[in-house]
Structures are given as C-alpha cells and as structure tokens.
Amino acid sequence: MLIVGYCYGIRSERRLCEEVSLNLAYRWFCRLDLEDAVPDHSTFSVNRHGRFRESDVLRHVFERIVGLSVAAGLIKGEGFSVDASVIEADASRYHGIAPDEIDLREIENPSRAIREYIAALDEAGDLEPGRKPPKVISPSDPASAWTAKANKRVQFGYGLNYLIDNEHAIIVDVEATPARTYDEVASTRVMIERTDRRLGLKPDLLAADSAYGTGKFLAWLINRDISPHVSVRDMSMRRDGTFSRADFRYDKDRDIYTCPAGKTLKTTGRVHDGRTVLYRAPKADCQQCPLKQKCCPRAPERKVPRDVNEVARDVARSLVGTPSFERSWDDRKKVEMRFGHLKTHHRFERLRLRGLSGARDEFHLAAIVQNLKTMAMRLTTPPPQAQAA
Fold first, then answer.
1. Which residue among 161, 267, 270, 347 is least crowded, i.e. fewest CB within 10 A of its CB?
2. Does the global pTM surpass 0.85?
3. Burial letters 267-281, b for 16+ CB under 10 A, else e
4. φ, ψ for residue 196 (rounded to 5)?
5. Has residue 240 got a pLDDT over 80?
6. At what angle do helices 355-379 and 333-345 cross, to 10 degrees?
7. Sign of torsion over alpha carbons 161, 184, 186, 252
8. Residue 249, SS3 per DSSP
9. Cα diameter, the chain
C-alpha cells in the first residue's frame, strides 16, 4: 500500500486507505480480494515504528530491486553520478530556536524525533574539527537543518542523496542527511562503500558538481581508483586586481612557490583548519618589492594557501574537458531530473514523517518507486498490434 501511495502521490495515509478500498487495481497489487478489509491508517504507524524499522525492510526491498536491475542489464556499473536535493521537513520555519535557548533533555514526554536526536548526539560525541553547531534548530524536528538551499527560501529540511548509475539512471543507493553540504558529501562515501559491499558495484568514475569538489573528498575517490569527474571547488581567484594563487609557480620537488617577482615562498608544514598549508614570503622581500601593490597592498608579506590534497585537486582539474568528462557531465543531469520528476509527478516536496529515521523511510520508498517505474519502462515493450499502429 505504501508503494501505491508513493507511486501515485497519495500523501495522506487516511486517503490511501480509501483509495485502496475503492480501486480494484490497487487491491490486486496489494493482494486484497473484493471482500478483504483494508488495514486502518493507524496500522502504518504501528508497523513503521515496529517491525519495519527493526528489520530494515525498506532498505532490503530497495536493494532487492537494484539487484533485479543488475540482473536485467539495466546497470552498467561503470559511471555513477551523485547529487542531493533539499526536501522540506515537517517543521515550521517560523519556530526556529537557538540551541542554547532550549534544553531538549528537559522536555517532558519528548517526541520520537527528539529522542532519536538526543540518542544520535550521545553516540556521535564531540563535533569534528572545523564543524560548527547549528545556529537554529526546530523544537519539533531538531535533526533537520536550517537551510536556504531549496527555492532560496529559509526552511528546515533534509538532504535527499541519490547515487545513480549513468546508463539508465537507476538509483543504486539513497541516503538521508540533514540539509548541509558537509553531511551530503560525507554520505557519498557511505553510499559508495555500501554499494560495493552489498551489491558488488564499484564505479570507474563519479560525476558530481562543485559542492563535492573538496580536496579531501577528491583524494578519497582517487585512493579508491575512482576517477573524479567533479568540478573542483576553488576560492583562490581574487577579484580586486591583485595576484591570485595561479600567478605563483609551484615547485613540487622543492615544495616552494615562486612569486611573479622571482622570490621564494616557503612553509613550515603546519596544517591549518585540518586542510590548509600556508606558504609565506620573507617580509623583507615583500617590503622592497616593486610589485607589492599588485600582490599584498594591505599585508606586510604575501601568503599563499595550499590544500593538503592539492595533488588530488590537480588530478580532477586535468580531467576537465576530456571526452569522457564531457559525457559524464551530461549524464550527471539525469540525477537532477530524478529530483524534478519526484517533486513534480509524485508531489514529494515536504516530508510527512519527522526525524532522520522518518526521512530515511520516505526516501527509501521514493527511490523504490522511481526504480520500479524505470524498470517498467525499460523492460516492457508494447504488444505487436500497438507497435504496428
């Protein structure tokens, strides 16, 4: 019944029970005879919070369908694409609260979403270096993220992460995260490893936009022999007319930069923010340099930052413009079309369930339905009389 609801955009479970009761095709699909009683809408909640999540049945159904797609030859397994789309959470954007203004642990009779959020915090422990706590949380769904990514409107949302095979846009994995770029990029590693472990699928290349073009993630791909067809995220270009990092020549053997005036910039090797190494010119060289106004007019000496994974970023840059990169870049649009189709044809723009587990359930069902529709379209042919007509 849930598959029927997500396939035809029936978002209300009360209405779904009514539709299945009246529609003979729905009854046939759900193995219900004419005289069989349709389950009550409350049955969905009981099973969802009980045996469905305990057995992880939605994940098993999803992976079973992917396996059938592999057996049918719909998944080539050579090139994957990844992207994320924000789905609005079931939380009012007008009721956000700063984390230090509310103590969720002191709430009497907390909701399931709050209990799950607190349990996840206790399990995760301290924040990773460089990460900041959220500025605003929702008291009804604290796991959702305060974001302005969707429709340029600030709201609470979750990230729907799809990993697709480029051949027929079959969704090979799906993951729910808070709608934050950091979490979305991290989920890609989870999806790639899980797809390899459970389904034996590992791509030769991965296509993604610049949100995934961090040095750390690119190095992770290269270390696993996955070609990164990803736009590198580069913030080094200056807009004020002064020299950018590209104007400085890097010597790999000596590990130094040479400025346009021929002076040397060296580093102590200290890593800042866990990802950047600074190369500095001697202050005396900069003070006497005739190019100072074009280089560092407001600083005593010039500093050039370099990502600790700059080699991986260079590899990704070298692939841009190649025929293989251009093909995969066109194929990457298929994952964006998946999101558009889901929101337009399945009315999937706002979640009904709260908490990360609720988002995970809904995202699994959405991916199941989209894969089933793709299989039906690719594996069935019209009868001979229809072809002749």
1. 270
2. yes
3. beeeeeeebebbbeb
4. -70, -45
5. yes
6. 100
7. positive
8. strand
9. 93
